[in-house]
Predict the 3D structure of the following.
Amino acid sequence: MLKHRGKGVGKMLLENVIKESEANGIWTLQSGMFAENEATIALHKIVGFRIIGYRER
């Protein structure tokens, strides 16, 4: 729902995934999303993800 956007829930969830992965010895996380999804890309960059490539047909 749109009323839940911008409240920090997604950031909190991603930060927790990162914390738990590191606590359990997982040092690489990958995420896939459509290039048009600018909000999701921005959120992932905020928590430390970086773009390493693009998939093509």
Remarks:
- The radius of gyration is 13 Å.
